Amino acid sequence: MSSIAGKNSPCVITRLEGGLGNQLFMYAAARRLAYVNGVPLKLETLSGFEADLRYKRVLMLDHFNIDFSEASSSEAYLDSDRRKYYVRKINRALPFSMRTFIEERKSFDPRILNIRIKRPIFLQGYWQDERYFEDIADLLRSEVVVPSLGNTSPKAGLNWKNVIGVHFRRVDYGHLLPIDYYRIAVQQAAALKENPTFMAIGDDLDFIRNHASALFPANANIIIPDTPSDQLADFHNLTQCGSLVIANSSFSWWAAWLNNQPDKQIWAPANWGYMAKSSRHWNLI
Question: pLDDT averaged over the chain?
């Protein structure tokens, strides 16, 4: 058990939940805050996933080259719901600089960038804005190394620079993108490459097959998996493509952000709120 001094040592603790993209946003914001303050980062990896009865998400960050420690039950307020309730209530009334439990607001909150950590700070929220971590982008890209699929990948041998990855998210999702978004984005992406290969990735392969003629140019070379791939394989393949047409999904946002093709072009939906605005260097449709 930690000593009293250990419990009060400065650190950043963040609660993880959701899918891979959400977990990466939470990690990135907390990692930046811990890094600029020179304090440890701890992750709370239990309550967010135990409460996820709908999607049954699990921790995915342990597949990456990320250095973190698990927060104790006391540090993460898992030892007492009553204690957590009162800590949150009290912190909402405190001046921001004195809070130890910081909850995300609906919009970007620049105050977080200037926090000086003198005690444990707990973060709760999604923090889906590039501005929370853009000043440590190189550090994050060196840590969040996408696992290699090695020779087991069915895509081995592709000229990835000539591949246009197209990501779809449609299953059990209330913010479906129209076919016209994909049609226009694919058309613009194809115009910049000679005889490109399209790699369709998503959670509804039947939709992709049934609408292929409306989505892709005639006689195009299209790779559509026979069966859904696992998340890491899909994520890996998206990070390798020469260009990307992404969905309104944090999963494909991160694949695009981590994609290290030097001349990559990214197309993203313009009506995506802060997610689109924080990617202002991309092509928005």
Answer: 89
Give the full edge-to-edge strand order of the sheet including 69-70.
69-70, 41-44, 11-15, 120-124, 101-103
pLDDT band, residue 157 (cuts 50/70/90): confident
First to last CA, the chain: 53
Query: If 0-12 CB within 10 Å is exposed, 13-18 middle and 19+ buried, where does residue 14 land?
Result: buried
Beta strands in 147-257 (DSSP E): 163-168, 197-202, 221-223, 243-245
**Could you give the count of Cα atoms lying within 13 Å of 239 in the half-sphere of its Cβ?**
20
Classify residue 89 as left (phi > 0), alpha (psi -120 to 50) or beta: alpha
Alpha carbon of residue 116 to chain centroid: 25
- Could you give the residue ranges of the DSSP H alpha helices within 72-136? 81-93
The C-alpha atoms of residue 75 and residue 97 are separated, in whole angstroms, by: 19
Contact 42, 69 (CB under 8 A): yes
How far, in Å, are 27, 51, 56, 208, 243 from residue 216 at the CA level?
36, 39, 33, 10, 15
241-281 residue pLDDT tens: 999 999 999 999 999 999 989 889 999 999 887 676 666 67
For strands 69-70 and 283-284, give the pairing. Answer: unpaired
Element (H, E) at 238: helix 231-240
Is residue 90's pLDDT more than 80? Answer: yes
Q: Where are the alpha helices (DSSP H) in 62-178?
A: 81-93, 137-143
Three-state DSSP class for residue 199: strand
